[in-house]
């Protein structure tokens, strides 16, 4: 297990990496330092064979993330004449979408703007009861091109409402529409649910988990027919693996499987 003392805390234990944004006094707003650290961490979890699944969360303050640190953005503009996004290597967190391991968002508060980006780029979402989510860029003159993939997660009329009005909506509505998997009563319950899901995933055959995530992503990118073709190609690696032999053998011998990821 390891931790660091930056505004983004990072720890790995029993196959689960936990990434936590730690700026409660600023409502976990995304500073340049945080965005750059997150980008480095997506590369780190990808390289680390000990990591099977990632939980993304933040310090308790009632807000999962308020999005871009607008105070810092104003200072960057005043000092350099540049938009803050120009200072970032990955302004829309696209590297996160390419992580091959599952990412679970444990959202212990409201989520909007960049907080919504982080939620949308996760694979499974657990939220807190009586919180709100939205895409607030229209209210502050910013943009949300990153919202396009959400058309595969939410109905088009609701996406239009989110992006055009900038209004916040109850998390229960996101849950009803399938964007949020679970809604829990307390921040601790949110994290506990996320960890339970993560441990289940970490115990499963890693190649099967990898192929499942790749297949769903391919279907979103390519459409049904070509996505199915891509999924079959990804699963060739699964069916030809030693784990494909180990799973049925362990079942027959009534023991837990010993996965090697190959």
From TrEMBL:
This is Enoyl-CoA-hydratase. Its EC number is 4.2.1.17. Belongs to the enoyl-CoA hydratase/isomerase family. Keywords: Lipid metabolism, Lyase. The keyword Magnesium does not apply. Gene3D superfamilies: 2-enoyl-CoA Hydratase, Chain A, domain 1, Lyase 2-enoyl-coa Hydratase, Chain A, domain 2. GO terms for molecular function: enoyl-CoA hydratase activity. InterPro entries: ClpP/crotonase-like_dom_sf, Enoyl-CoA_hydra/iso, Enoyl-CoA_hydra_C. GO terms for biological process: fatty acid beta-oxidation. It comes from Achromobacter insolitus. It comes from the Bacteria. The keyword Lyase applies.
């Amino acid at each position: 297990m390891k931790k660091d003392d930056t505004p983004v805390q990072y720890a790995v234990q029993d196959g689960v990496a936990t990434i936590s944004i730690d700026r409660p006094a600023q409502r976990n707003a995304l500073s340049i330092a945080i965005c750059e650290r997150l980008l480095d961490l997506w590369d780190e979890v990808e390289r680390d064979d000990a990591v099977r699944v990632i939980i993304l969360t933040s310090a308790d303050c009632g807000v999962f993330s308020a999005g871009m640190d607008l105070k810092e953005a104003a200072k960057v503009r005043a000092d350099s004449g540049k938009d803050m996004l120009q200072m970032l290597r990955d302004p829309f967190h696209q590297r996160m979408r390419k992580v091959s391991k599952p990412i679970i968002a444990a959202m212990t508060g409201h989520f909007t703007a960049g907080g919504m980006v982080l939620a949308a780029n996760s694979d499974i979402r657990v939220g807190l009861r009586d919180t709100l989510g939205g895409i607030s860029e229209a209210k502050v003159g910013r943009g949300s091109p990153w919202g396009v993939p959400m058309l595969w997660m939410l109905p088009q009329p609701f996406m239009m409402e989110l992006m055009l009005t900038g209004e916040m909506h109850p998390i229960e509505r996101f849950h009803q529409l399938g964007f949020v998997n679970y809604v829990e009563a307390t921040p601790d319950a949110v994290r506990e649910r996320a960890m339970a899901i993560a441990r289940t995933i970490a115990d499963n055959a890693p190649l099967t988990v990898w192929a499942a995530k790749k297949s769903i992503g391919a279907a979103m990118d390519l459409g049904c027919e070509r996505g199915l073709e891509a999924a079959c190609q990804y699963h060739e690696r699964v069916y030809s693996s030693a784990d494909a032999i180990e799973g049925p053998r362990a079942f027959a011998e009534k023991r837990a499987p010993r996965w090697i990821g190959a």
